[in-house]
Structure formats: C-alpha cells, structure tokens
Design a protein that fits this description.
This protein has helices spanning 77-80, 88-91, 120-123, 175-187, 207-230, 243-251, 264-277, 294-297, 300-306, 344-366, 382-395, 425-429, 445-459, 474-483, 485-495; strands at residues 3-8, 14-21, 24-32, 42-51, 56-60, 67-70, 129-136, 145-147, 152-153, 157-160, 166-168, 195-198, 235-238, 256-261, 285-287, 311-313, 319-324, 328-334, 370-375, 403-405, 413-418, 467-473, 498-504, 512-517, 523-524. The strands form 5 sheets. Strands 4, 5, 6, 7, 8 and 13 form a 6-stranded antiparallel β-sheet that branches. A 6-stranded mixed β-sheet has the order 16-17-18-19-21-20, with helices on one face. The protein is built from 15 helices and 25 strands. The chain folds into 4 domains: 3-36 and 243-301, 2-Layer Sandwich (Nucleotidyltransferase, domain 5); 42-238, OB fold (Dihydrolipoamide Acetyltransferase, E2P), CATH 2.40.50; 311-429, no CATH class; 445-524, Hypothetical Protein Ychn, Chain: A, CATH 3.40.1260.20.
C-alpha cells in the first residue's frame, strides 16, 4: 500500500494536508491563517466567574473570549495545596544523589487522588490564577474548553507534569510491547515528579531516539516554567507548533513513503524539523515544483468538493445521507439500486458493511464530532448486526479522535460519540446563508403574501395610519398585486388607508419592510412582530 502526505500551502491564507493511500483520500486537515487556533496552547489565566450550579469556572486567558473550566478538569494539586507551583516538579525531584530519578528505578505509582473532588467553589475563587491548556475550540457561542491537566506532545513521548509516572498509550495493546517500552523509559531515568506517556509512534524506536525526545521535552518544560514564574495572567505561556510541523509530528510514520510540500519556505521549515527529530526520514521529504497544482494533480480538489455534499454515493451502489446539527449528526443509509441475488437480508448486510466503512471515512474527513446516530438498513439476523458493528469499529481504529460505539438498538440504530476538538470542516469553509439563516429553506411567495396580508390587517386597526408601504421581493409583490388584489382593496376601504406594494430586486425571498404614515405625512411606528 502506497501512502503519501501532501501539504498544500501555495495559498498563504490556507494550509491543507492530505493523507492519500493508493490514490484514495483518507485524511484531510485544513487550517486558515485568519482563524485563531488555540487547541494545545498553554495560558496563565485568571478566574473571572464561578458557576456552582454547573460546577464550572470561566477563565480569562487573554484571547478575548473566556474559557470554560469544569471541576473534572482541575488537577488535584489546586485543592491539595491551594494552587499549582510548576517549579515544584523540579524542586522535589532531588534526592540523596541530587540527580533526576535518583536511585528510585522501580515502577512509579501515580500520586493518590481523592475519590471525590470538592466543589469548585471550595477550590477556586475569583481572581485566582490558573495554568490552563485549551483542549477544545469554541463552537458557536460556546467558549473554548480548558483543562489544568497539561500535556505537551513530542514525537514519541507526551510530557504530562501532573501524571508523576511513566505510562504507555492505551492504543498500544500488546502487553509485551508495553512492558518493554516502560522498562526503556525507566532506564532513561526521567525526573521524578514529572509524567511521561509513550505514544504509538514510540513503538520500535531505539533508546537513543526516545532519549532525544525526552531531553527535548525537558528543555521545553524548563522554558515554560520560567515563563510561568515571570508572567502575570492572563497571558500566553506556550503555543503549539504550526499545522505542518504538528501534523508531521503526530501523523508521519514509517508507512508514509513520501511527503510533498509545494512551497519553499514551508519545505525548509519541515526539513529542519525532520533533521532535528527524525533525521533518518529526511530523504522522504520532497519539494513539489510541478506547474500543475499539487492537489489537482492527485484529483483531491474534486474529492474535497464531494465531502461537503449531503449525499455521498457508495461504490457498490446505494448512498449515505449526512445531516449535521449543533451537537448531533444523523447519518442515514440508503440501498438505492444495489441488489444481491440471494435475499433482502443479504442485500441489507452487504450495503451496511460498505456504508460502515464509508461512514468512518466521512466522519474523519469532515471532522464531525459529538453524538452521531447511524440509521442502517434493518437486518433480522443477529450475526449480521454484529458484523456491521465490527466493521464500523475496525474502520474507526485509524481515527486519532476518541470514539465510542454502542451496540445496535432495537430500531437498527448504531449510536456513537466522537471527540470534538475543533469545529468541523464544513463550519470552517462555509457561512450560514443570509437568506435562510442556515435553515436550508425559505418561505414561498404564497406564504410571504399571506403574512403581508395579516400585517396589513393589523395596520388597519390603527386609526393613525393612513398610508402603508410594503417592500418585498419581486415574486411576492407580483403575487400580492395579482392574486391578492381584491383583498388589498377591501383592507384599504375598511382601514381608510392607502396600501403601496413595492417590488425589490436582489434581496432575500423573506425580505419584508413595512413603513406607515399618518394623514399629515408623519411616520407612524408599526411593529407587527
């Protein structure tokens, strides 16, 4: 299987990174320079307000929007010792011989945590300074989500100051590999008081490579500690790397044959990073200098356009329909013209298997999150239901976001949740339609005409109004002038007023402006809403 990473930064306003496997787009990451991306950044914030009813604090961390900090995301040191002192992690590591790790080479147990956290009003007060990290971008009117559990990723390791021990990623399931990685980390003697997690990228890495990553993270953490001690909140302490470096760090693996970058300065930046962190793979980085745009050459622009559509056709026939709401995504599976010669049950099973794989791919490409409800075609046999569940679970394994999948419900639905970190791809690329306000529908000319007549009936009840002007789109104006002519004449007689219908071009189908005047030409305020 040939896997390539394509990085398109020819347009300075946007960075696009695609993972292509045998010509098929499997992962897509898009970031606009005009959009502020805070996920992964560390700030020294100030508690602005406490909400005991939801056990949360709102924190000003210096970006113009307050962040949301739930009590479950508050590190125990805050309520054990009345505040978090980052330098303490280095001060307490010294022992008899004065060097990190000392003689304690055994497997370290995590610090004991209270079973029940105290209420947030007993932990924090207004004006308290807290060290926080953004874990989720703000969506709509919701501010960013914060956590005091700091994590700083390297290439093979993740530094977690509050963890206090060595651990291995849960995604590494082989127990023998887990034990080996843990032993290697203990041989490196990481400082006591700091925690490290070995990432999946750390599998089959040499002790020297892990040691280099450990040293890099320790240098970075010392710089962060100095900034924390010198700065007063709200202020930024540490910012994540740009999207190119971040993606290469987190996603690049031995399976990626080539990395293509179509811009010189970005290429040099990525090359410098690879030489520092993964020198053995520098030769896989290539500067794309072709005249044809990089994504167009791989036919990705057409594929990206397709993933924005509501209906996604399946190769075998049939389709899936994706509808996205604020915090819920509904996905419906349609068989279309797909048929098998055996039976309706076998037809449903085959199309559901294909749909499960495509659903996982679309969720990943569109970066959908929250609750996702999948309405598969009904199947009677239990083994077929379990087969579709397994197919969906297998398909989401490559997803970096955390997912949880439930068993098929009696109604044939498979519910799942997916970690939401940033707004989905669609929200970044599109704005709500000003005509329909994001609903996808607008009132018909007939509906608008009926609404106008109702408002004119209200205006006729006001004795001060002698003239009414109604401005609507041309189609509605024609409907009123033709089909509602007699009714308008009756309203003029009954209300002793003159009604003027004005057609306007190039406005929303629901455009409606009503102005009223008295007999002396003075404007009369009229609010029908």
């Amino acid at each position: 299987m040939k896997q390539e990473m394509l990085i398109n930064v020819a347009q300075p306003e946007e960075c696009r990174i695609a993972i292509v496997e045998d010509g098929v787009l499997e992962e897509l990451y898009v970031e606009r320079t005009a959009q502020n991306n805070y996920v992964g950044n560390i700030y020294k914030g100030v508690v602005i307000n406490l909400e005991p009813s939801i056990q949360a604090a709102f924190v000003d961390f210096g970006v113009g929007r307050n962040g949301f900090l739930h009590v479950s995301d508050i590190e125990p040191q805050y309520f054990r010792q009345g505040g978090f002192d980052p330098k303490q992690a280095f001060e307490r590591e010294k022992n008899g011989n004065g060097r990190p790790g000392g003689q304690d080479r055994g497997r370290r147990r995590p610090a004991a945590r209270p079973r029940v956290k105290p209420p947030i009003q007993d932990i924090l007060r207004r004006g308290d300074q807290v060290l926080v990290q953004v874990t989720k971008e703000g969506i709509g009117t919701k501010g960013p989500t914060l956590s005091t559990y700091i994590s700083i990723p390297g290439r093979y390791l993740v530094l977690m100051p509050a963890l206090g021990r060595v651990g291995v990623s849960r995604k590494i399931e082989d127990e023998a590999v887990r034990v080996k990685l843990r032993d290697v980390m203990l041989e490196l003697e990481p400082p006591r008081g700091l925690g490290f997690i070995v990432r999946t990228a750390g599998i089959d890495r040499t002790k020297k490579e892990l040691s280099r990553d450990l040293a890099y993270l320790l240098r970075l953490w010392k710089v962060i500690v100095r900034r924390i001690r010198k700065s007063e909140g709200p202020t930024d302490i540490y910012e994540e790397s740009d999207m190119i470096i971040r993606t290469i760090r987190d996603i690049f693996s031995n399976d990626v044959d080539t990395i293509y970058i179509d811009e010189k300065s970005a290429y040099e930046r990525a090359r410098e990073f690879l030489q520092l962190v993964m020198p053995r793979y520098v030769h896989r980085l290539q500067l794309y200098e072709g005249k044809e745009p990089l994504f167009h050459r791989y036919r990705l622009d057409e594929e990206i356009t397709k993933i924005q559509r509501r209906t996604v056709p399946l190769r075998q026939g049939g389709s899936i329909v994706i509808d996205q709401a604020e915090a819920l995504v509904a996905i419906d599976v349609n068989s279309g013209t797909f048929r098998t010669e055996d039976s309706a049950e076998e037809t449903a099973f085959q199309i559901n298997i294909a749909a499960a794989k495509e659903i996982a791919r679309q969720i990943r490409l569109r970066d959908l999150g929250g609750v996702i409800v999948n309405d598969f075609i009904d199947m009677r046999q239990e083994r077929h239901r379990r087969g579709v569940e397994r197919a969906l679970r297998d398909a989401v394994k490559r997803d970096r976001a955390r997912t949880k999948i439930l068993r098929t419900s009696p109604f044939g639905l498979i519910e799942m949740t997916r970690q939401r970190i940033r707004p989905g791809l669609k929200r970044n690329a599109y704005a709500d339609c000003p005509a329909c306000r994001g609903s996808g529908v607008v009132k018909t000319p007939e509906s608008m005409a009926i609404e106008v007549v109702r408002y004119l009936m209200l205006a006729g009840q006001n004795p001060d109004i002698s003239k009414v002007s109604v401005a609507v789109i041309d189609e509605v104006a024609n409907y009123l002038s033709n089909r509602k002519r007699r009714e308008l004449a009756r309203l003029e007689d009954e209300g002793q007023m003159v009604v003027q219908i004005l057609g306007v071009k190039g406005v929303s189908p629901e455009h409606l402006v009503i102005e009223c005047w008295d007999k002396d030409g003075r404007e009369v305020r009229f609010n029908p809403y």
